[in-house]
Each structure stands twice: as structure tokens, then as C-alpha cells.
């Protein structure tokens, strides 16, 4: 939904005919519900078993319409608007370290690599997951530790000549680099959903491995 003043308003329970269309709602009216029904949005929430948004809209509409959601970045939209509406306390830390766009070369290489591993590998390489028996943990909240990323950690499955999961400065000795480069089913990583080599991701990992100092022994 989009209002004429470009502020956002969210409606639940749409009919199929109303989807994939741009609609404009006159915010000057006290009760917007008739406008929603006229453009195909269902207000009979009881048949959908969803949160009774439209029932509450009469009381909360003016509160929602007072917020300009455009001032929030997409990662702060829910939190920022929640604070304004009084649903959340305004006690956020000054900085929050989270995954980033791994393709953004203006960001630190280490942070981009950690984000890439979280996106592509953590679904298996974490506790109570398919590869939990492996000695690496690649979720973002764990992969700030080099050991969890496999740096200088011997692989539990030996494949010659790869002596470590990640061998500092040596992609030719790093089994992780081999696995993400391979398209052979018995070697490739991730295991599923991939038949091609992700060249950009491989280059990212190569750059990171080559940047690591020290020697794995």
C-alpha cells in the first residue's frame, strides 16, 4: 500500500485481485476502512485467522500515519518504528555488528567473508545441523573466531593435498577453497542447490586466504 504522501501503511488479508497493484489512499479521511474494501482488500479478518489489523486500524490509524518510515534504513525499519509507537524501549547499543553486503568492497574483507560464510555455509555448519560433527562453526555470531572458520584446523576428512580447512596464504592447501570451487557432488560445498561454481564467492575466499599471515603447521 502507498499513500499519496509516500508514507507506508501495511494492510493484511488482501484479495488476490488486489495484489500486484499500486493503490493510493486518502489519508485525510477519519476512517480508511471503506477505501480498503473498495480497492479489494478484505476486512473480514476472522476468515483468515490472522491478526485483526483492520479491527485495530480505527484506533491506531492516526498513530501510524504520523510516522515517516522513509527515515529508517531497511535494517532499522521495524525497530525504529517500534520505538516511535511505544512497543520497544529506546535502549539500543550505539553500534550493532551484523552481516553486511559481501560484495561491498568498501567494507573490511574479513567482515565480508564472515557474512558470505554465514549466508552460504552456516545452515549446515552450526550446532544441531547436518554438519555439526565438522570442526567449524560458520554462523556470523560464531565465525569471528579464526578456529571456528577453520584457520589452521586439520580437516576431519582428508583429501590430498589439502592439509588444513584454511591454510594461511595457501589456497592450494585449503580444503574449504577446494570444496567451494568444485562442482563434483562428492566434494562440493554447499552440498545442495549448486551445480555451478560461484566465481565471485571463490574470488572473495581466495583474497581472504591470501591475506592471512602466518604459517599453519
Describe this structure in words.
The structure is a single chain. With 217 residues, the protein is mostly helical. Strands 1-2 form a two-stranded parallel ribbon. Helix 4 packs across helix 7.
Question: How would you concisely characterize the structure shown here?
Answer:
The chain has 217 residues and is mainly alpha-helical.
Structural class: mainly alpha
Strand order of the largest sheet: 1-2
Number of helices: 7
How many structural domains in the coordinates?
Answer: 2
SSE topology sketch:
Layout: E1 2-3, E2 24-25, H1 33-38, H2 53-65, H3 77-85, H4 109-121, H5 146-149, H6 175-181, H7 199-211
Parallel strand pairs: 1-2
Task: Name its key features.
single chain, 217 residues, mainly alpha, 2 domains, two-stranded parallel sheet, 2% strand
Amino acid at each position: 500500500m502507498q499513500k499519496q504522501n509516500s508514507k507506508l501503511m501495511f494492510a493484511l488479508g488482501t484479495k488476490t485481485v488486489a495484489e500486484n497493484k499500486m493503490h493510493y489512499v486518502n489519508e485525510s479521511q477519519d476512517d480508511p476502512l471503506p477505501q480498503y474494501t473498495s480497492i479489494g482488500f478484505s476486512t473480514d479478518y476472522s476468515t483468515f485467522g490472522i491478526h485483526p489489523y483492520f479491527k485495530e486500524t480505527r484506533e491506531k490509524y492516526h498513530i501510524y500515519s504520523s510516522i515517516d518510515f522513509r527515515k529508517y534504513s531497511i535494517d532499522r525499519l521495524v525497530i525504529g518504528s517500534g520505538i516511535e509507537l511505544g512497543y520497544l524501549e529506546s535502549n539500543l547499543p550505539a553500534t550493532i555488528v551484523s552481516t553486511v553486503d559481501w560484495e561491498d568492497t568498501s567494507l573490511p574483507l574479513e567482515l565480508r567473508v564472515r557474512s558470505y560464510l554465514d549466508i552460504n555455509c552456516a545452515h549446515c555448519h552450526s550446532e544441531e545441523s547436518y554438519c555439526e560433527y565438522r570442526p567449524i562453526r560458520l554462523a556470523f555470531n560464531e565465525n569471528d573466531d579464526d578456529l571456528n572458520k577453520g584457520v589452521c584446523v586439520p580437516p576431519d576428512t582428508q583429501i590430498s593435498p589439502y592439509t588444513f580447512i584454511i591454510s594461511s596464504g595457501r589456497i592450494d592447501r585449503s580444503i574449504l577453497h577446494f570444496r567451494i570451487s568444485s562442482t563434483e557432488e562428492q566434494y562440493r560445498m554447499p552440498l545442495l542447490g549448486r551445480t555451478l561454481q560461484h566465481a565471485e564467492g571463490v574470488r572473495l575466499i581466495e583474497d581472504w586466504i591470501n591475506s592471512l599471515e602466518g604459517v599453519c603447521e
